[in-house]
Give the backbone structure.
Amino acid sequence: MKIPTLTSKKHKILTHNNIDYYLFYHPVLNCIKNILSISNISQNFTLRFENFKYKGEKAYSEQYTGNWWKNTEASLPHGSNLLSIILYSDATTTDTLGKSSLHPIYISIGNISTKRCNKSDAKQLLGYLPILKAKDKFEKKSKDFKKLVRLTFHNSMKFLLDPLFAEKGIDLEVDNKTFWFFPRISTIICDWPEAATFSLVYKSTNSNFPCHFCLISKMLLVDTDLSDVTFRNNENMQEYFYNKAGQDVSLENIPNYFWSLPSINVYSATVPDRMHHLDLGLFHYQIEFTQALLQKQDSSLVNKIDNRLSKIPRFQKFQMFTNGLQSISRMTAKEYRILMKVMVFVVDNLYKENENNVENFVENKKLSEVYAKWNKMYMMSRSEIFTESDLENFRICY
């Protein structure tokens, strides 16, 4: 079987401050053909929606068991197939001093089973997006420069992805058979700042509506009992944008490229990856919140936690926390996952009564319950199958 050559190309996106900025890329159709040409991909490749059930109940597992797939497939011409496109975005530094950086975009296919899709050869480097440099610190902070950065990002995505959306679809070979496909972007996986770039909402956590997929004000984000939540979608965001009211919902004054694409709500399709969202994100903040809470209630409790962590006996493949939580800012995702396993025991029976008469005192039992519930939620989030009742219980309990 012939494997397309992924020859790198470059395309000039813009000139700024007398510097030409290029997009280095592999043609998107070549990337897809390269993935489909892998010898065992066809064994893990699905063409049609599956009404999946688990223990007699409607359930969700692979992408092709979900409602998005069902609805998108129904919108396509008779006889054609859906090609689910997954994008990965990961801006990163490339030297130890943090002075050089790249913004790679990767592509994969949602028709492939998740386990197979997670292997490195099932992803292809689509391109490196240009990273603009300001001439000085004043330009870097200016609104015009920030707008240009976001506009350049979306212009680059348009150049990379437009070849996918031919009006009559595209023909692709799978296991030496030709199929008629209509590519549709199903998921964009990235960290939180990049999610704001894809959805073009304000990046600042101090903005009135800092969430990229809902319209909950910053003052209410900590309220876990909200019942009436408005979600962002292409329609309501375009209404704000074209009525020149984007600032009312923390929306950038730039038209979003993904509004023009079929069958994608960019606000719900853009999701933080689990490592950044849970391991390095929410759990990190939960630890910091616990430290601040205990410092307020009794400063000696922070040292007590460090002491308990340092006394955990050695065990094979188990990270030792000899310095307690002092190095929390330098912890890896793996170390956070190990910390999850022990924190529920570390905070248990840590303190008893409100001896210092602290206002808004949090009982030790409630703090322990937070860590116990976190672990249940985290384990559930790693499940490979979700039934309707699982999702409802998840919504109610967590």
